[in-house]
Design goal:
With about 300 residues, this protein is α/β, with parallel strands linked by helices. It has two domains: about 1-5 and about 20-95 and about 215-300, Rossmann fold (3-Layer(aba) Sandwich), CATH 3.40.50.1000; about 115-210, no CATH class. The protein contains eight helices and 17 strands. The chain has helices at about 1-10, 40-55, 65-80, 120-130, 155-175, 215-230, 245-255, 285-300; strands at about 15-20, 20-25, 60, 90, 95-100, 105, 110, 135-140, 145-150, 180-185, 185-190, 200, 205-210, 230-235, 235-240, 260-265, 275-280. Strands 2, 3, 4, 5, 6, 7, 15, 16 and 17 form a nine-stranded mixed beta sheet that branches. The chain has a six-stranded mixed beta sheet with strand order 8-9-13-12-10-11, covered by helices on one side. Strands 1-14 form a two-stranded parallel ribbon. β12 (about 200) and β13 (about 205-210) form a beta hairpin. It is globular, with a radius of gyration of 20 Å. The chain starts with a helix and ends with a helix. Bound molecules: magnesium ion. Magnesium ion binds next to loops. Magnesium ion binds near residues 26, 28, 29 and 242.
């Protein structure tokens, strides 16, 4: 504890600083267990605190809501004792919502109204899910700009998949009937301006209905820009994720002319070929791989 204590009493200057590296972390998979959907490995919190207190900029870039992050990630970090002089940031709902993470908890929430699903469209698809598909799925009440309908715990994968397909078809038809431009698989309906600004995006445990502009590359850009505006930069950014869309974080880093390393913690689907380094953690997957990666980054601090 004494080394940590000294760092807290002599924090790096709050003014401009360049860290050796920064982190862009997907949450579900590398940080939160895909089974319990909580942080199940204690070293993850401990190592995140060590990294943050060493001045490493750390951003969580997730499709989850700020409410989920507050409860499952920020609360245990605050309970572990966060310094004031840290560079921690959260990007939620795939880039549509964001907030700093401070010693006192999640800071002021900001959102981009240009990527929000219109309120009446949101109300209608959420009503369809509640009224007709409630045994298999539930509405994520914490979402602000997108709609997420999730598999109910205890519903079998087969039952969910069948209900999910019917829900998505009903949602697509309802939104198209409203004149909303929307994409769903191969199906596209254009709005009055000839555009399709929204999409229905199925995952194995949820359906997201969202702006086509929401994605992990925008989330990564939001985080790196936010740090830069506060004078915190890094020449190299590690991104960590369990989905193919998580590579988009490193795609942004690479396109911005910075050194990118992407750590794939669920390489079962096959690694994607990229012009930057793509890494795995041996045979480890999910949060075990995420914990192992964070431990390596703490060791790299040299303390
Ligand atoms: Mg994930």
């Amino acid at each position: 504890m004494s080394a940590d204590r000294m760092k807290r009493q002599h924090p790096a200057a709050a003014a401009a600083r360049t860290a050796a590296f920064g982190l862009l972390l997907d949450v579900d998979g590398p940080i939160a267990s895909p089974e319990s959907r909580t942080i199940a490995i204690p070293s993850i919190i401990h190592d995140l605190l060590r990294l943050a207190h060493a001045g490493v900029p750390v951003a969580f870039v997730t499709g989850r809501s700020d409410a989920f992050m507050r409860d499952q990630v920020v609360a245990p970090l605050v309970a572990g004792g966060l310094d004031d002089d840290i560079a921690l940031f959260g990007v939620f709902e795939k880039g549509g919502v964001w907030a700093p993470i401070t010693a006192a908890g999640l800071g002021e929430i900001a959102l981009d109204p240009a990527v929000a699903l219109p309120a009446d469209a949101r109300a209608e698809v959420e009503r369809i899910a509640r009224e007709s598909f409630s045994p298999a799925m539930f509405v994520d009440e914490g979402k602000r700009v997108m709609v997420s309908i999730e598999q109910r715990v205890g519903t079998s994968a087969a039952l969910y998949r069948e209900a999910q397909g019917r829900f998505e078809d009903a949602a697509f038809r309802a939104l198209a009937a409203r004149g909303l431009g929307i994409r769903y698989g191969d199906r596209v309906v254009l709005d009055a301006e000839g555009a399709a600004p929204y999409r229905i995006d199925p995952t194995i445990i949820s359906t997201d209905i969202e702006s086509v502009r929401l994605d992990k590359d925008h989330g990564a850009a939001r985080a790196i820009d936010w740090f830069a505006e506060r004078g915190v930069t890094a020449p190299r950014w590690y991104s960590v994720g369990d989905s193919r869309s998580d590579y988009k974080m490193a795609d942004h880093v690479h396109a911005a002319g910075l050194e990118a390393v992407h750590v794939d913690v669920r390489p079962r689907d096959g690694l994607l070929a990229r012009d930057y380094e793509v890494a795995v953690r041996g045979d480890l997957v999910h949060d075990a791989a995420g914990a192992d990666f964070l431990r390596e980054r703490v060791a790299a601090l040299g303390g």
